[in-house]
Amino acid sequence: MIIDELSREDLLKLLHIFAKNWLAHDGCWFLAAEKRFGLETAMELDSEAWNCFSPVEAKRIMQTFGIDENGGLDALEKALGYRLYAAINVQEAERVDENTLRFRMVECRVQQARQRNGSSTVSVQIRWDN
After folding, report:
1. CA dist., res. 82 & res. 73, Å (int)
2. For 77-86, how does the pLDDT look when each residue is reduced to its tens digit (9 = 90+)?
3. Can you give the chain as a three-state secondary structure string?
4. Cβ pair 2, 11 in contact under 8 A
5. Phi and psi of 95, rounded to 5°?
6. What is the pLDDT of residues 95-116, one digit of tens each?
7. Which of 50, 63, 88, 125 is the most buried (most CB within 10 A)?
8. Crossing angle of the two packed helices 39-65 and 8-37, in degrees rounded to 10
9. How many CB atoms neighbour CB 30 within 10 A?
């Protein structure tokens, strides 16, 4: 396989291309759903898709990088750094105290694209109580 012959630099380039392509596909799907069904329904469908995808992504990350399932906020913070989004967006995690992790998407390519196209942006706030 050609991927086995790539240098570290080219593998990193490929990772970024894969991440951008994945995000572009996700965006195209969302825009098609929004065009056909409206923003509210597109967001509902997107939420359903993410509810299905997120546990799969998390499980693969945790297995691949040996992250303990019961590792608490330290494990969560580490796993968030391995998400495909982390390769193309600027994000930060801040430990407020031993029971609080504040995660923020500093630069989101999806939101930036929606702003450039004059579409409304979407804001999400998640609270997790363990």
Report:
1. 15
2. 999 999 988 8
3. CHHHHCCHHHHHHHHHHHHHHHHHHHHHHHHHHHHHHCHHHHHHHHHHHHHHHHHHHHHHHHHHHCCCCCCHHHHHHHHHCCCHHHHCCEEEEEEEECCEEEEEEEECHHHHHHHHCCCCCCCCCCCCCC
4. no
5. -85, 110
6. 888 888 888 888 877 777 777 8
7. 88
8. 150
9. 19
- CA 19, chain centre distance (Å): 10
In the chain, the amino acid numbered 2 is I
The two three-digit tokens of residue 108, written as one number: 């989101």
Q: Identify which of 127, 124, 96, 121 has the alpha carbon closest to the alpha carbon of residue 39.
A: 121
The two three-digit tokens of residue 61, written as one number? 């990350």
Report the amino acid identity of residue 82. Y
**Does residue 106 contact residue 92 with C-beta atoms inside 8 Å?**
yes
**Phi, psi dihedrals of residue 3, rounded to the nearest 5°:** -60, -30
Residue 93, amino acid: A
